[in-house]
């Protein structure tokens, strides 16, 4: 680079530093004035966050000198994306804490601090404009930057940027409010700011400071939306996003990427990987709230519009662990097939049953379900009231028998529900000191054996027929039902499509 160009470059860079430091001076100045207000009348809760603003303001001054200082003599000396990222990082802290201080002041009717908070926020907006408008153009193209500088001389506060008043005046009909939000960001200040803001907006927010930690947490906790930073040590945000979208359970969780990186290639990659949105730091809190609400609403509408499959679960009360396994499995499948189908389980224990009528008269009929799952072990169940009989006048041995035959009648007439029946083969443990209980269990077992012979065995009694499956342990059952029910769901989807 020639001496003239070097000199021009340095001059232009000095102008950029000046323009950046002007709004930073406003941030620090108004922050210090607010700090002085409480010397005689302390307000600890307000002052704590105000100190965070001042700390970030002074850090901005240091960064401007370090990243864009007089020692830089050419473009090769400056990391443009890195510079923009670090400046925005500190600015995000300022705007975040300022927003929370404003909310605190409004909650406690301390209107006297609002004007200076507005000035700090406006200065932050102006600083953002300079970072976006001047840092890249001024440094990358001296001639272009010089011409632009001539057109934009004057105070940095004259930049055409929206202020806090405009943001606060927005009238938005919020959709998708409430829900569990996971914030993934390696910066603890960012995590603190964002989770506090989300909690104030009615969300339950949890923060983790690494991609690895986020994936571990997602294995045990369910979230409605993920806010994801890109630049993190270890697993990057893009790597986390790739993992999420490859996981059959996690891929349907909406993801909004939050980053100070102004890199179109990375933005496009995030979108192609399946991110729902991309916001630059520092972000407008009103805009962030709107984007979160919109993402949650879109997810809700997608769930609303998918086909529904009713799954009827029938069994006596001696297979409670197996019923629990089915419940967990249905929840997992609803996550896995979130945008394709929704399984609605029908458990008798979930129904608001009235004492004035029979169980069978109140529960959803098995013949109208899409899938019937029967689970048995040592008993068939208690006989139904005398007035509930088959068309031929015979009595049902139990409610489980009634539900199965009701499901069979539906299958024979219209080909649904699909029917799966399971029986636990392990022998139940019965105390030898209770003769009546022993006799009852023997009678129940014989009723169940008769039921199995009638519906699921060949005439010679040598083999099982139909969708009947024997299992020994809960683990065996979990593996069986997971395989079978998933295949039925896939088959149903193929028929729907």
How does this structure look, described?
- The chain is of the alpha/beta class.
- It has 3 domains: 166 residues, no CATH class; 125 residues, Response regulator (Rossmann fold); 191 residues, Rossmann fold (3-Layer(aba) Sandwich), CATH 3.40.50.
- It has 16 helices and 10 strands.
- The strands form 2 sheets. The protein has a 5-stranded parallel sheet, with helices on both faces. Strands 7-6-8-9-10 form a 5-stranded parallel sheet, sandwiched between helices.
- Helix 7 links the parallel strand 1 and strand 2.
- Helix 1 crosses helix 5 and helix 12 runs parallel beside helix 16.
- The radius of gyration is 33 Å and the shape is elongated.
- About 8% of the residues have low confidence.
Attribute tags:
497 residues, alpha/beta, Rossmann fold, five-stranded parallel beta sheet, elongated
- On the 0 to 100 scale, the average pLDDT is 81
Please tell me what the overall shape is: elongated
Q: Give, in spatial order, the strands making up the sheet with the most strands.
A: 2-1-3-4-5
| Gyration radius over CA | 33 Å
Taking pLDDT < 50 over at least 5 consecutive residues as the criterion, the unreliable ranges are 138-176
Reading the helices and strands in chain order gives HHHHHHEHEHEHEHEHEHEHEHEHEH
CATH topology title of the largest domain: Rossmann fold
CATH architecture verdict of the largest domain: 3-Layer(aba) Sandwich
Beta-strand percentage range: 5-15%
How many helical elements? 16
């Amino acid at each position: 680079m020639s001496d003239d160009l070097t000199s021009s470059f340095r001059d232009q860079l000095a102008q950029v530093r000046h323009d950046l430091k002007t709004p930073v001076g406003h941030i620090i100045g108004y922050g210090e004035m607010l700090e002085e207000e409480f010397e005689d009348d302390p307000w600890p809760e307000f002052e704590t966050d105000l100190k965070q603003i001042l700390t970030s303001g002074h850090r901005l001054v240091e960064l401007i000198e370090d990243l864009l200082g007089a020692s830089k003599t050419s473009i090769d000396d400056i990391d443009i994306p890195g510079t923009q990222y670090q400046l925005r990082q500190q600015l995000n802290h300022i705007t975040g804490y300022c927003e929370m201080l404003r909310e605190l002041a409004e909650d406690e009717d301390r209107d006297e601090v609002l004007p200076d908070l507005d000035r700090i926020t406006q200065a932050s907006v102006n600083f953002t404009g300079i970072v976006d408008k001047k840092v890249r153009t001024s440094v990358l193209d001296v001639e272009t930057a010089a011409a632009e500088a001539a057109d934009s001389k004057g105070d940095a506060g004259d930049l055409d940027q929206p202020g806090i008043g405009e943001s606060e005046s927005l009238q938005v009909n919020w959709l998708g409010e409430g829900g569990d939000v996971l914030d993934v960001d390696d910066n603890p200040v960012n995590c603190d700011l964002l989770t506090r803001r989300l909690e104030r907006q009615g969300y339950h927010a949890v923060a983790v400071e690494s991609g690895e930690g986020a994936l571990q947490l997602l294995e045990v906790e369910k979230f409605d939306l993920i806010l994801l930073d890109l630049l993190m040590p270890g697993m990057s945000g893009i790597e986390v996003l790739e993992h999420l979208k490859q996981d059959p359970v996690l891929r349907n969780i909406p993801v909004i990427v939050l980053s100070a990186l102004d890199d179109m290639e990375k933005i496009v990659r995030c979108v192609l990987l399946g991110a729902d949105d991309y916001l630059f730091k520092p972000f407008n809190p009103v805009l962030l709230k709107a984007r979160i609400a919109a993402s949650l609403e879109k997810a809700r509408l997608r769930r609303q519009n998918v086909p529904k499959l009713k799954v009827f679960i029938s069994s006596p009360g001696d297979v409670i662990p197996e019923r629990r396994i089915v419940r967990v499995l249905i929840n997992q499948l609803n996550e896995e097939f979130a945008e394709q189908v929704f399984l609605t389980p029908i458990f008798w224990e979930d129904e608001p049953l009235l004492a004035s009528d029979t169980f069978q008269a109140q529960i959803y009929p098995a013949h109208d379900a899409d899938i019937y799952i029967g689970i048995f072990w040592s008993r068939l169940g208690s006989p139904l009231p005398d007035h509930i009989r088959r068309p031929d006048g015979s009595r049902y041995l139990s409610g489980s028998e009634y539900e199965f035959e009701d499901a069979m009648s539906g299958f024979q007439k219209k080909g649904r529900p699909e029917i799966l029946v399971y029986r636990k083969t392990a022998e139940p443990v019965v105390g030898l000191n209770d003769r009546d209980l022993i006799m009852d269990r023997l009678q129940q077992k014989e009723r169940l054996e008769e039921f199995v012979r009638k519906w699921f065995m060949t005439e010679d009694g040598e083999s099982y027929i139909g969708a009947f499956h024997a299992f020994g342990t809960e683990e065996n059952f979990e593996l069986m039902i997971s395989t079978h029910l998933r295949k039925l769901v896939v088959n149903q989807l193929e028929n729907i499509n």
